[in-house]
User: Which sequence fits this backbone?
């Protein structure tokens, strides 16, 4: 199921997450928004994880790391 809708929504949620993080400085909202972006897998969702190219795995792991980092910033910076 390859639809351009998924790619557009994925990029939209990523950009909105960066907006919340960089402009609004609301890291918990950035983490939540970028986490929702995982719903819209930009790659072939029918393809098994082991069959995906390494660059696709790297993109998704970097995305996961950003979500975790923003969540950590949100928890740590609001602990004052």
Assistant:
């Amino acid at each position: 199921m390859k639809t351009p809708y998924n790619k557009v929504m994925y990029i939209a949620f990523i950009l909105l997450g960066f907006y919340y993080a960089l402009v609004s400085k609301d890291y918990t909202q950035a983490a939540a928004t970028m986490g929702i972006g995982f719903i819209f897998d930009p790659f072939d969702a029918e393809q098994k994880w082991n069959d995906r190219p390494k660059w696709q795995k790297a993109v998704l792991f970097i995305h996961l790391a950003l979500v975790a980092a923003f969540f950590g910033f949100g928890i740590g910076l609001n602990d004052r």
Q: What stands out?
A: Helices lie at 4-22, 27-36, 54-77. The mean pLDDT is 90. The chain is about 65% helix and 0% strand. Residues 54-77 form the longest helix (24 residues).
